[in-house]
Amino acid sequence: MKRTVLAAIDLNQADDQKVVLKTARQLADLRKARLAVVTVLPDFQMSVVSTFFSDDHTHKIMEETRVALHKYIEDTVGQDDQTKHVIRMGKTSEEILITAEELGAELIVMGAHKPNLRDYLIGPNAAQIARHAKCSVHIVRD
User: Fold this and answer.
1) β-pairing verdict for 136-141 and 34-41
2) Cβ of 132: how many Cβ atoms within 10 Å?
3) Averaged pLDDT of the chain
4) How far apart (Å, rounded) are the C-alpha atoms in residues 103 and 117?
5) DSSP characters for 12-79?
6) Residue 122 binned pLDDT confidence (cut-offs 50, 70, 90)
7) Residue 121: what pLDDT?
8) Is it the case that residue 114 has pLDDT exceeding 90?
């Protein structure tokens, strides 16, 4: 199995995430590993909110995200047929950890904002992933 570096990207903060993706590309190249990029969407099929969306909404948002992720990766680090693109739906930290496990990632690269007091009481995604990942986690600060 080829070595994998997983970059976790939030397309809603695309400008801030460029450094994360570029760092992941550099680390993957250094390790002679495949780059995989994951972005996680909220679960629109949750019973509480599902009645507000049409039946094909999930399909449309997944397709729009697929196109946006491919363009974002190409614009940021160039086209590479070996780069894996992954779109998940659900709780961000859980989906990133599941993706890392499924791909056998040896490293997760993700961004994190500067912590404030609230973050010490309620762990952000980066803290959850760093605590629970079975592989190394490289956190890039903005």
Assistant:
1) unpaired
2) 13
3) 87
4) 34
5) GGHHHHHHHHHHHHHHHHHTT-EEEEEEEE--TTSTTTGGGS-TTHHHHHHHHHHHHHHHHHHHHH--
6) very low
7) 45
8) no
Cα-Cα-Cα-Cα torsion 50, 55, 56, 60, nearest 10 degrees, comes to -10
Residue 44's identity, in one-letter code, is: F
Across the strands, what pairs with 6?
36, 108
Write b or e for each residue in 113-122: b if 16 or more Cβ atoms lie within 10 A of its Cβ, otherwise e.
eeeeeeeeee
**pLDDT value of residue 9:** 95
Of 73, 11, 61, 68, whose CA–CA distance to 36 is shortest? 73
Q: Are 90 and 43 in contact (CB under 8 A)?
A: yes
What confidence tier does 124 reach under pLDDT thresholds 50, 70, 90?
confident
Q: Which amino acid is at 139?
A: I
